[in-house]
Amino acid sequence: MSLCILAAGKTVTLGVAAFTLAWTHSVERTRWEEDWTVQPSGLQVIEARIKGSGAGMEPPEGAELRDGWWVYAPKVGAQRRILLAASGATGDGWTLCTVQGCLALGKTAGETISLEPCEPTGFSQPR
């Protein structure tokens, strides 16, 4: 499997099985990170971390505080795709990191960015 990033009418294909998506909360200015895997059934979040807590960012029941991060395993099924709204008003946008390196996404205002599993050919799977 591969990860397809669809933005501004273009597709970038990353031949990876896992990635981390990170961002800073626009109001609380607190870091948030999620670890995902790319599976045929969709994108599956494995673990999430919040650096502190605040408005709209309360750690869920069962979260553990580790080195200043609230760490937990979200209880959601595989997602067909993840949509990132790029308003440009939240500061840094998102950082997507893989074993190949990191990419900045949605730092400036623009169209919605879609993350989804894709075939090795680089085409996203039927929705």
Structural account:
The protein is mainly β and 127 residues long. It is built from no helices and eleven strands. The protein has strands at residues 2-7, 10-14, 18-24, 31-39, 42-50, 64-66, 69-72, 82-84, 94-98, 101-105, 113-118. A seven-stranded antiparallel β-sheet has the order 6-7-5-4-3-9-10, with no helix packed on it. The chain has a four-stranded antiparallel β-sheet with strand order 2-1-11-8, with no helix packed on it. It is globular. The protein starts with a strand and ends in a 9-residue tail after the last strand.
Gross morphology: globular
Strand line-up in the sheet with most strands:
6-7-5-4-3-9-10
Strand content: over 45%
* Distance between the amino and carboxyl termini: 16 Å
Summarize the helix and strand pattern as letters: EEEEEEEEEEE
The main β sheet shows up as: 7 strands, antiparallel
Rg = 15 Å
Secondary structural class: mainly beta
Task: Name the descriptors.
4-stranded antiparallel sheet; 11 strands; 49% strand; globular; 127 residues; 7-stranded antiparallel sheet; mainly beta
How would you concisely characterize the structure shown here?
This protein is an all-beta fold and 127 residues long. 0% of the residues lie in helices and 49% in strands.
Secondary structure elements and pairings:
Blueprint: E1 2-7, E2 10-14, E3 18-24, E4 31-39, E5 42-50, E6 64-66, E7 69-72, E8 82-84, E9 94-98, E10 101-105, E11 113-118
Antiparallel strand pairs: 1-2, 1-11, 3-4, 3-9, 4-5, 5-7, 6-7, 8-11, 9-10
